[in-house]
Amino acid sequence: MAASEAAPPTASAAGGASSAPPLQPGLYLVGTPIGNLEDITLRALRVLRTASCILAEDTRRTRILLERHGITTPLISCHKFNERAREEEILRRIHEGQALALVTDAGMPGISDPGARAASAVRRAGACVTVIPGPCALTAAIALGGSVDGRGFRFEGFLDHKTAARRRRLRELAAEPQTVALYESPYRILKLLTEVEEELGPERRLFIARELTKKFEETVTGTPAELRRHYETHSLKGEFVVLLYPAGGEEKS
Question: CB 155: neighbour CB atoms within 10 A?
Fold first, then answer.
């Protein structure tokens, strides 16, 4: 097995650090909760507890998770603005025999979040890169949306923030036969609904999930106009996952 494909030691039944073997040097991409802090695996907790350090998108947010689970591993910032600059340090630490965990604020690293650049750099260097699967807003919304049914889906992440580019991409997706999944911020969700109505038609149906796994989790389905009316009286807090159902398609019952 190639070094970059080597599997890490398995977690103990209890997930604790005392009885588990040490982690081999390398980069561990760890999925973390997207809302509810209980949504984390025993293996993820073991890796976070026994890693040499944790590369975190926002150390303040990650510290909340670590304190909840009694983990004191040192934190180093690693976000989209400094990920490239961190590559040399990451490779040096791994060469020195360290096991580095990488986490984002929520969900899976590399899915519209930092992590992909660091993973590629470590893999190119021939060192171990492995993943500790965990929650992901994308797959949670797909499961809730009920429209895929084995046919697959297309993930677009965040559309371009520039209006012309966003509208052009929506026109390109108009005839997509599969459900299209998007991420959107609370600052642009109403704008997106207007653009979908104007570029894809007023009857195109959407599914929107907001604040997944949190206290005020909300999912709604409807046309762009119906959803705009909904948000006139409901919160726009949190990040959104938007599913564009295929033209003429409906969610499964």
Answer: 14
In a domain? residue 109: yes
157 and 229 part of one domain: yes
* pTM, full prediction: 0.84
237 lies in the same domain as 179: yes
pLDDT per position as a tens digit, 20-42: 788 999 999 999 999 999 999 99
Name residues whose C-beta falls within 8 Å of residue 253's C-beta, 6 or more positions apart in sequence. 146
